[in-house]
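Q: I'm writing a short explainer about Germin-like protein for a general audience and would like to include a description of its predicted shape. Could you first generate the structure from this sequence?
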Amino acid sequence: MASQFLMLALLFAITCSIALASDPSSLQDFCVKDSNSSVLLNGFVCKDPKLVQADDFFFSGLDKPGNTSNPVGSRVTPVTVTQIAGLNTLGISLARIDYAPWGINPPHTHPRGSEILTVIEGSLEVGFVTSNPENRLITKVLQKGDVFVFPVGLIHFQRNIGYGNAIAIAALSSQNPGVITIANAVFGSQPKISADILAKAFQVDKNVVLNVQSKF
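A: Of course. Here's the predicted structure. Afterward I'll give you a sentence or two in plain language.
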């Protein structure tokens, strides 16, 4: 009897953990973000359903290339709850990523969503790194039509390994997955992380850290 109760409790705990692993489910047809509300909560306040319009569920322009004239040679065009108010509580979003030849989408994480990426044009080298202590790199070269998954929270990247432009579409399991670009966060934080701390963390000379910080 005790073992049956333990198994039931374990099953309940696992079910709860799965239920809490993504954005909460909606309890009505929709909950369009009310941009005029000053109330702070985990998500966004719902607009009065009577005031909802088709444009609350609409975004245009994903067919247009992003400007990749920047140091990393890529541009992400996000379509999250910020761009489509009707995504509020739905637990999904997407993005278009454009890559110049040999451009990269630098190592980054999405703290609130897993990602599934589809190559639309070109060839991409992609990969993610598992958590401590293994820190194992899982990587693959993708061609047009190939799909790859990046688990939630893990550091991942893409690189265009072709001589022409590349395009990918990424779908994410959150209305607001967030993004933390590792280099920007570590070397470009405001105020700056102490160069002494970073020098010790990366096992390099302090002047190297100061030089890298100056680029951000």
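A: For your explainer, you could say: The beta strands are 74-79, 93-99, 104-109, 115-121, 124-129, 137-142, 147-150, 156-160, 166-172, 180-181.
Q: Perfect, that's easy to follow.
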